Amino acid sequence: MPPPTVHQPTVISEASTSHGPSADWASHPSSARLYNHLLGGKDCYEADRTLAATLTGTVPNLPTAAQINRAFGHRAVRLMADRGIAQFLDLGCGLPYGESLHETAAARHPDGMRFLYVDHDPHVIAHAQALMTAQPPAVAAHLLADIRQAETVLSSPEAAEVLVPGRPVGVVMHTVLHLLGDDAVSALLAALRDWLPPGSCLSLTHPAADLRPQDARYEAVLCAAAGLPLRQRTRREVADLLGGLELLEPGIAPTGAWLPDHLTGELPLSASAAWAAIAAVP
């Protein structure tokens, strides 16, 4: 039986709200809670567990793909920190799970690391404020904002307080751009390019439309039916988003290709379901 036809949405329903889900959010799946559940977290509701069961019944590698994606996140922060970056902006941070990215950065910069977490979901930010905290001299702060409103995020009091002007910034955009339409992603990246100082880096992971196309099509259909349409992109589309920036090796590659064996343990890297890239700002 051929996979169903997918009509890609221009923007996901959750991301279209300025400050997150509606009053009945617990009865509908959330992208943040779904991802947390796939990782093995407990911050989810029945709607999220139901969608996860439906997805993994069709695409059984999804939990492994989520773990690989998370491992890349820590790998990316280490690589950026090793390039001298000591302040970070996490756009679409998601729910806490395991070691936080700011803890990974602080291990590389024990004399002071600065991290600003941003998410549009009040539920996510409430959890982040409780669990994603730092011990001085490290700083970890949290901002409730819609990343489509880039200028609002970048000019916010939180950004001014946490991020020192003129110093390189590591921007983290992991498993979030698929929630935005093409115009919104282009506008966000343009704003970041204009704002970021030289020596900064952009790190992204993006669900792939072309690594395992049939699985991707099934996943898109099932998520859309549950009210979470997503915009998967091909490697070529991800390359277009980063055009003109210097790509760190191995370039735009499956998430698992970025991970040394000792960081993945028993994870089968062939289960990667997203493209990953780190791009340096000249």
How would you sum up this structure, described in words?
The chain has 282 residues and is an alpha/beta fold. It is built from eleven helices and eight strands. Strands 1, 2, 3, 4, 5, 6, 7 and 8 form an eight-stranded mixed beta sheet that branches. Helix 5 links the parallel strand 2 (114-119) and strand 3. Helix 2 runs antiparallel to helix 9 (213-225) and helix 3 (62-82) runs parallel beside helix 4 (101-108).
Cα radius of gyration in angstroms = 18 Å
What is the element string, with H for helices and E for strands?
HHHEHEHEHHEHEHHEEHE
> Can you tell me the CATH class?
Alpha Beta
Q: Structural class, from helix and strand content?
A: alpha/beta
Helix content: 25-40%
Q: Can you tag this structure with a few keywords?
A:
282 residues, alpha/beta, Rossmann fold, 8-stranded mixed beta sheet, 8 strands, 39% helix
Short description:
By secondary structure, the protein is of the alpha/beta class.
List the helices and strands and how they pair.
Blueprint: H1 31-39, H2 46-58, H3 62-82, E1 87-91, H4 101-108, E2 114-119, H5 122-131, E3 139-144, H6 150-154, H7 157-162, E4 170-174, H8 182-195, E5 201-207, H9 213-225, H10 235-241, E6 246-247, E7 253-254, H11 261-264, E8 274-280
